[in-house]
Amino acid sequence: MKHAHIIGWGHYFPPRELSNDEISKVVDTSDEWIQARTGIASRHIVETETTTQMAFEAAARAIAIADISPSEVDLVIVATSTPENMFPSTASQVQALLGADSAGAFDLSAACSGFVYGLDMATQAIKTGAVRTAVVIGAEKMSRVLDWDDRGTCILFGDGAGAVVLQGSNIPGGVMASMLRSDGSGGNVLSLPAVYENPVPFLNGSGPKKGENRNVIDMEGRQVFRFATRVIPQIVNEVIEQAGIAIEDVALIVPHQANTRIIESAAKKLGINPNRFFLNVNHAGNTSAASIPIALCEAVQAGRLKPNDIVIFVGFGGGLTWAASVIRWDAGPNYQDNPGIARMRYGLNRYRMRYRQLHRSVMARIGGSPTPNARLKDADKKK
Question: Is 20 a catalytic residue?
Answer without folding.
Answer: no
